[in-house]
Amino acid sequence: MSVQYVKGVGPKRAAKLKRLGIETIEDLLYYIPREYDDRSNFKRISQCIDGDKASLRVEVCGYPSKLRPRRNLSILKIPVKDSSGFANLVWFNQDYISNHFSLGDRIAVNGKISIRGNEIQIMNPVFEKEKGNRVGRIVPIYSLTNKLSNNEMVNIMRNAIRDYVEKLPEVLPKCLRDELKLLPIHRAIKGIHFPKNREEYLAARRRLAFEELLVLQLGLLLIKNRRADTRSGIKFPAIDGMNTFIDNLPFELTKAQKRVFKEIEADMKSKKQMNRLIQGDVGSGKTIVAILAMFKAWKSGYQSVMMVPTEILATQHYESISRFFSDYNISCALLTGSIPNREKEKILSDLKSGKIDVLVGTHAVIQENVEFARLGLAITDEQHRFGVEQRAVLTQKGINPDILVMTATPIPRTLALILYGDLDISIIDELPPGRKPVETYVVGLGMIDRVNSFVKKQLLLGRQAYIVCPLIEESDKLKARSAEELYVSLKDGVYREFKVGLLHGNMKAKEKESIMDSFKAGNLDVLISTTVIEVGVNVPNANIMIIYNAERFGLAQLHQLRGRIGRGQYQSYCVLINEGKTRISRERMRVLQKSNDGFYISEKDLELRGPGEFFGTRQHGIPDLKVANLFTDMDMLKIAQLKSKEILKEDYLLLSDEYLPLRQTIINMFKDRVNDLIFN
Ligand code: ADP
Ligand code: MG
Predict the structure, then answer these.
(1) Which of 33, 86, 141, 144 has its Cβ near the most Cβ atoms within 10 Å?
(2) What pLDDT sits at residue 622?
(3) Domain topology for 41-136
(4) 251 C-alpha vs ligand 1 centroid, how far in Å?
(5) In which band, very low, low, confident or very high, does the pLDDT at 262 lie, cut at 50, 70 and 90?
(6) Topology classification of domain 439-595
(7) How confident is the model at residue 496 (pLDDT cuts 50, 70, 90)?
(8) Residues with CB under 6 A from ligand 1
């Protein structure tokens, strides 16, 4: 029903509400306050403290006085009292307010206290003669445009709740509410807007957050089930030669790698489409697992594609994949934005005719003109750098190819179930043997001379160093400039006896490649770089990483960067230059100093930064949540996950009367992805 039916909402206000996304009465009732102003505890005048906000019940005990200290300033004072003392209500440039008061009026006020000598002033207070919306209660504060005042909104909301809240459809089945002691919807909505006290607010919030998490989780499971149910994929045959290939690798697979590859093989063998996420800390050896899967696909007569976020990484993967496959007649190709057109056309036609078996590349591989003869396996590496849509486009390059996505941003399992809710998850929770943990130091800029002389000692021993420039958000251009400045000052300064290279995202691909090649070959001692080296890069002889302005990076990102070293036989050192002054920034740096465990680090990162900054949920295709918080409501999320599974087991299409309202709510929440739900 249109919001215009709510008392106090005419066409004008309806238009303003529409700007907030509120069109129906239900939209309005679900418009959750941003925060609350607790005006529920009345104080007495004698209890007032300078600078505090306070609610008071007072009586007007004298006539208004108006002062005009300057031409543009007038001060109105109204004397009031309660049984404990006297005070003045004070307004600036609002003399007309005096008309509202008569001697002896009893009023409730709320405002900031200012004590001047013996005079207690209540500055610019909101006031009410009778008990109403504004004083003496917890007042909801809404996010509004400047066209609509909070007070107007509170009045509208009060009317809407009085007249319509009982009509709100209940989504949660009664047995579930009883079991989890959740409020019915009308009480929750009332409680979230106008809680009488903190307990009422918490109970209301809990109910609404749970509903949101349940609906979210159910929706994601329905998407996943649809895949499992209706989309049959390729059934890869059992092949010879897999074991020989594994036995001939230059190293033995870790237990975790073996286990994860078994899981992948089982998926590939089955006739349902594989949708699997591999999570594994930096350096845990995800690439080789992907290579095994590609080998299996090739042996079975299918093509594979691997998409990665940067050209540098694409080149590197291409080279190492080609090396692993060099004893076989497997034809590999590299496709990035900077491949010359002539070459590109050849690659595209060879892909289409099936001459190419394995394609590695950047976003270039999902362009429209890229067509495969028989794509069987699509892999994305460093998935956290891509969005769901890009993954989806890659998938559509074949007829239900098996999907493998890899990420080194480890997140708690509960969250992974949400962010990658439509995927099965494998975890490589073991590093290859013989890795020496990186030693990490946090220092201030004042220590830079000592840091540099330490670096130089290592360089003289034949090692190499990365120096990462301060993080600049604005643009690639600015990033490039800051990198260039650092490069010039170091190259001609402290590191003038050494060979110093520069790498940033704004350089031509060929340039980047040749710099990276010289660094790999040991022709450069120091590589000064922006975060383009964050993912994937593998140069075992480099054992030092210096990161400027480390406080500006996310912890997970610092951990990734640090993952570039500690890849060879040498002890590695990471120096974080911290210029942050806050307690939080020191605490964050300490987390990295203390731990090399990506799971621990990302959990801490979530805790210290909050989930909003940790991941853009948009990127992950997760609908926006109004009440629930994926991190702080983790316990509730676990319950929601459990209950979703139970519910779907009982009624996997949600068609029974009990679950129909849930079904509709899911469709509303997933309006952008409705076609992915199993209902369709
Ligand atoms: P990530 O999981 O970060 O992508 P990589 O796949 O790049 O890690 O592997 C990091 C390094 O470890 C590579 O040089 C790779 O060859 C090596 N590696 C992978 N698995 C093993 C193993 N089982 N034993 C020894 N080295 C391994
Ligand atoms: Mg990798």
Answers:
(1) 33
(2) 65
(3) OB fold (Dihydrolipoamide Acetyltransferase, E2P) (2.40.50)
(4) 9
(5) very high
(6) Rossmann fold (3.40.50)
(7) very high
(8) 251-254, 257, 280, 282-288, 408, 432, 538, 567
Domain ranges in the chain are 3-32+143-193, 41-136, 242-269+285-407, 439-595
d(C-alpha 267, C-alpha 228), whole Å? 11
Region label for 156, one of left (φ > 0), alpha (ψ between -120 and 50) or beta (otherwise): alpha
- Among candidate residues 591, 603, 654, 568, the one with its CA nearest the CA of residue 214: 654
Which ligand minimizes its atom distance to the CA of 560?
Answer: 1
Neighbours of 582 (CB within 10 A): 9
Alpha helices in 165-236 (DSSP H): 174-180, 185-193, 198-230
Cβ atoms within 10 Å, residue 555? 25
Beta partners for residue 593, in sequence order: none
Mean of the per-residue pLDDT values of the chain: 87
Instruction: State which amino acid sits at residue 346.
Output: K
> If you measure from the C-alpha of residue 312 to the centroid of ligand 1, how many angstroms do you get, rounded to a whole number?
17
Candidate of 287, 294, 382 to mutate for ligand 1, largest count of ligand atoms within 8 Å of Cβ: 287
Question: What CATH code is assigned to 242-269+285-407?
Answer: 3.40.50.300
Instruction: Decide if 369 contacts 348 (C-beta within 8 A).
Output: yes
Confidence of residue 423 (pLDDT cuts 50, 70, 90): confident
Confidence of residue 504 (pLDDT cuts 50, 70, 90): confident
Per-residue pLDDT at 596 exceeds 80: yes
Q: What is the mean pLDDT of residues 201-212?
A: 95
Asked if the domains 41-136 and 439-595 are classified in one and the same CATH topology, the answer is: no
Which pLDDT does position 288 carry in this prediction? 96
- Closest Cα to atom 12, ligand 1: which residue? 285
* Tally of CB atoms within 10 A around 512: 21
